[in-house]
Amino acid sequence: MSRIMTVGVAVIDIVMSVDELPRHPEKYRARDGAIIGGGCAANAAAAVARLGGEALLAARIGRDPIGEMIVAGLKAESVDCSLVRRIEDGRSSFSSIYVDADGERQIVNFRDMALSFDASWLEPAVPDALDAILADTRWPQGAAVAMAAARERGIPGILDAEAPVREAEEALRQASHIAFSAQGLRDFAGIEDLDAALGSAREETGAWVCYTDGAKGVSFFEAGAPAHVPAFAVDVVDTLGAGDVWHGAFALALGEGQAEREAIRFANAVAALKCTRFGGRAGTPGRAEAEAFMRSSA
C-alpha cells in the first residue's frame, strides 16, 4: 500500500442541487442537498484512501464545530488526521455551493485569514516513510515545507496549482510535478494561450508540468514534446471536487511507480466517475470501479 501525504486546505461543503445557478436576490428551492467534507488537500486524501492508498493529511482548522465535522468526515474515509492542526480561537473553513442541471458549480467560500499560516511545526513532523507528497497552493507555507520534504526524500512532490499560484513561489521551485488547472496556468503565466503558457511554466520551473481542462482532458510534455490525454466522456451530474480527486489519484499513481501518462489516464477515470454523482467528495469511486471503467473505455 502506497503512503501519500497531502498538505493544504480542508473545509465543509454545503451543497445544493438547483436547476439554474442563482442570479437574483430571491428564495430558491434545491432539488437535492448534501453536507460533506471538501477542500483540495482533504478531498485528495479521501480519494487516495478510497483508491487503496494510505492517506495522511496535514492541514489547519479551528477548534470549533465545523472543525469537528471536518475531522469526523475524514476519519470515516480512513484518512490519518494526526497532522491536522486544531487552532484555538480559529474558525474552520466552509463553503456554500450550488450545482446546476449541467453539473457546473458556483462556490462561495469562507476562510478565516486570521488562522495561522505558520508551517514551522510541520517540517519535523513529516514522516520518512512516504511514497509521494501532494500539496495545494491554498496554504503556501505548508506547500513549501511539503515540496522540500519530497525533494529531500527523492519522491514525487506534486503541487496542485490553483490561482493565485505565485503565492506559492517557494513550493513552485521545489516541486517535481506541477499540475495546473487551466485558470491556475493562465494566472501563473499571464497569457491566455494555454499551450504556450505550459511551455513557459516548464521553462521557468524546470518541473514536469501539465494542465487539466475539464472535459478537454490533460495536456503535458512527454519526451520534450507536447502531449495530451483526453478526458473520458460521461454524463455529468456534479463537477464539485473533480479536480481535487484527480490530484489525489494522480499522486497515488505516481507514488505506486506509474509513469505520468498512465497516472493521468487513471486520474482522468477517477475524476470522470466522480462527475457522474452528486455530492462532491461523496461521489469518489473505489479502485476496482475505476479500473473496471478504464478497461471498459479502452
From TrEMBL:
The keyword Transferase applies. PROSITE patterns: PFKB_KINASES_2. Keywords: Kinase, Transferase. One of its GO terms (molecular function) is kinase activity. GO terms for cellular component: cytosol. GO terms for biological process: phosphate-containing compound metabolic process. Pfam families: PfkB. Residues 1-285 form the Carbohydrate kinase PfkB domain. SUPFAM superfamilies: Ribokinase-like. InterPro entries: Carboh/pur_kinase_PfkB_CS, PfkB_dom, Ribo/fructo_kinase, Ribokinase-like. The keyword Kinase applies. Gene3D superfamilies: 3.40.1190.20. Belongs to the carbohydrate kinase PfkB family. This is Sugar kinase. The lineage of its organism: Bacteria, Pseudomonadati, Pseudomonadota, Alphaproteobacteria, Hyphomicrobiales.
